[in-house]
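Workshop exercise sheet. Pairs work together: one partner reads the sequence aloud, the other fills in the structure field after running the prediction. Swap roles for the next sheet.
Pair: D.N. / O.F.
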Amino acid sequence: MHPSLGEKLLKVRIYQPSKTAMQAGKTQTHFWIIEPEVGGDQYLESVMHWTGSTSTGRQVKLRFDSLEQATDFARSQQWQYQIVQPHTRRFCPKNYAANFSSNSSKPTHC
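Structure field:
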C-alpha cells in the first residue's frame, strides 16, 4: 500500500501503553502500539447523542512486540511516524514498619 503522489502520507504515533488505574501490575504494557493520527470530522448523533466520526482510523490500533518491529512496519508502509517514549516510574520500596517510623515527619524520597 504505497501512496501515489497526490495522496497524503499517513501519520502514525508509536507508543507503549501505560497501565490503567485498575491494574496492579504492568502485564499489558510490554508491547508497542501504532495508532494513526486522523483528523476526520466528528459530529454528535441526534438521537442517542453518541459521538460519530467520518473516519474509521480511530478504531485501528496495531500491536507489536518491540519498538523495532513497529518502526520497521511503519517504514515498510511509508508512513510518517512519531515515537512517544514511555515515562519511567520510580519505585520506592517500603515495608509496613515504615508507616509507624518515628521519622515520619520527614518525607523519604528514593
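Discussion prompt: The CA atoms of residues 43 and 94 lie 49 Å apart. What would you look at next?
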